[in-house]
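Follow-up to my earlier ticket, as requested here are the two runs.
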Amino acid sequence: MTLRADLAVIADSVAPGSRILDVGCGDGALMAALRDGRGVDARGLELDAGNVAAAVSRGLSVIQGDADSDLADYPDASFDYAILSQTLQTTRRPDMVLDHLLRIGRRAFVSFPNFAHWRGRTSLMWGGRMPVTRLLPEQWYDTPNIHHLTIDDFRSFVKGRGITVEGAWFLSGDKRTTSAAANFFAEHAVFLLKS
């Protein structure tokens, strides 16, 4: 199975034998890859019932829940990694969700779309319309994205909260790109954080 590019970055960076919590795990693709390829003890939390059913059918331990309200139930440092991929921008309180991730996991992976990518800027500037791209395919009225953050926003956010960035990867399409001008050229970012 081929993983989405940000998930592949995370899968390559998780230590074998780790315990992980994948928040917003979707159909469990990352969890299955980590379980099968790295011997990881993976647990998942997912809002969508159809995705929960798909993950459970893969033999994964996934419960239905909401990152905005259910992370408080997890004990401190109960996982080696807490993972939030392509979900931060859909939560009501990303600041609180990030606090919980760093409390629950010894480290946290966070990936998100970069709304400052040049295609989005161009669409808004010249077309006067919210961007619809291959990676952001929804129209403004049906998008799950309620916070339109950029890489520079996120860097400033974690710096202001005293969070350590242990790693950062930037993606354009399915390929990695450099950190130079990532706020303009990267479509997605992956950060490895530690409190």
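Run two:
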Amino acid sequence: MAGTALAPAKVPVRKTSAKRGHRSRIALVNAVPVTVFLLVLFVYPIVGVLSLSLKGDSGGFTLHWYTDALSGANLSVLMSTLRISAETAVLSLLVGFVLAHAIARMRPVFAALAMLIVVVPHFISALVRTYGWIIMLGEHGLINTLLTSMDMPGAPYSLLYNETGVVIGTTSVMLPYTVLVLQGVMRGVDRRLLAAAAGFGASRWTIFVRVYLPLVAPGIGTAGLLSFILCLGYYITPALMGGDQQTVVAALIDQQVMKQDQWNSAAAFGVILLLLTFAGLGILGLAKLRRKKTAARGGSS
């Protein structure tokens, strides 16, 4: 009996194929609402904005709105928006890294409570939070009052209606996103690797720079890029805390549509912001692909 080969079980090919075909039809039916949703709410508006940005006053094709957007005062506003977005991303990363690192080292109960404290303000209207910052950063606000009472040289400082105020306000809005991303990555770090490095005599600084930072680098890149992209088109806080002295692209688009009726120019700015977003996502995708290839080469060697 031991040497007797068992005959392979007969597979009902037609029945299996019928089941697969039925599942495929169900999948297609389920995909229809999602596809229609994406086409109507995402693809159609984007195509409309792109078409508008390439249409001249006579209805013909033109690149005039793009050349206008990338020259003179408009280019200055675009560069200012990029600079503010980069500064916000860096500041969010610095503050968010410290917060996320502290939360990741807490016990689960305290970590959940700390995350609640970080995230709950995010559910409050951005308008309310922005006015809160305006009250705090004003000439007679809490910050300047404290600095003046401490006899800080130069106090009170001008913290509103300039780039400093805009960066402070937008950083407070982007901070919860940064902490959420970083904390998730830091929680996933295998602490045994850090303990192993310490066991081999590495200093705390060496462990932090050569072990911990490379492990959380994907989270840093994702969180920074997320803050940068969200800040590119952010409107409320820069408009209120920057005033007329610190205009960003989102406020410029609003002015062109609501006051100047320049829809074509506003569309060109919208497309430029979209391309910058795609460029950022492309850089992040290439970085992830490169890390995967490096890991694959390391695993195969």
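The only thing I checked on run two: DSSP finds twelve helices and no strands in the chain. Let me know what else you need.
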